[in-house]
What does this fold into?
Amino acid sequence: MDILISEELRAPAIERLAKTYQVVAEPKLWQQPDKLRALIAEARVLMVRNQTQVTAELLHGAPKLLGIGRVGVGLDNIDLGRASSLGIVVAAPLNANATSVAELALGFMLALARKIPEADRSTKAGNWDRKGCTGIELAGKTLAVCGLGRIGGTVARLGRAFGMRVVAFDPFVKADSAVVRESGVLLCGRIEEALAMADFVSVHLPSTPETRRLFGASTFSATKPGAYFINTSRGAVVDEAALLDALQSGRLAGAALDVREFEPPAARGALESLSNVVLTPHIAAFTVEAQERTFEAVAADVERLLSGQPVLNFVNFDRPKR
Ligand code: 3PG
It folds into this structure.
């Protein structure tokens, strides 16, 4: 088998691959660990989104695996270190969806600032409540961008285009780096410094042991009272119970979440019932353009891999070793 696809992945780029290579596509395979282990033992390439847990154990049972094509940018479901030590290249087009994710973050800011979802609900219910839908402007407000990578940097630039003052926190970014110069942000040494100034907080962090539940009771109490909180990164970076407390106590004015700790959430909870909370089903990268760029880039790398050429979008080491 050339390519094993263990999640729902459909696109013209995959259809083209299937014309040349032997592809086994099982959209629910990520939920069937025994079958996944059996099939991966024969696969040369694995293609995934973020649901397949590509663990060390799974990789050890994949002696023919040359590489993994991640159709997306979050890498928290793949044991990158183990893949590297086994000589398995991981390809993920890290630039492919930054614009789409950043545009959703700005959309959330506008939705919260101008109460667009509430105004929509109220108007469709037959009301004409102009005063009740009074909002605030983004211009002149301070935006704190947490995580100044490709997506965070784009959010910072878009925020500045709206006339916002942008502050940022990212322990991996230096004050003299290009992203700081180009996005015109004030880089803070501590996250609390950025949060204390923020009218809007936008999170763009990967899910790692260090960022797990980083946004909890203590970070929310360090945030400027009345701020809006936006997360389009990973649900694991937020303690949802602490977020709910911060919203119910009025510490935060509102929140927008595209990502949740459990996806989909097991049941409708209190967050779902708050009118100042906007929720979407992990759609930040779901635009026609971002999906096309992502699929095309991953498919091209899979072809390179299967025809013995080095992949372009490798994220774990320089050259495939198998
Ligand atoms: C990403 O990590 O690229 C986005 O969160 C989209 O993830 P997906 O692979 O589940 O679509």
Summary: The longest strand covers residues 252-257. The chain has a mean pLDDT of 96.
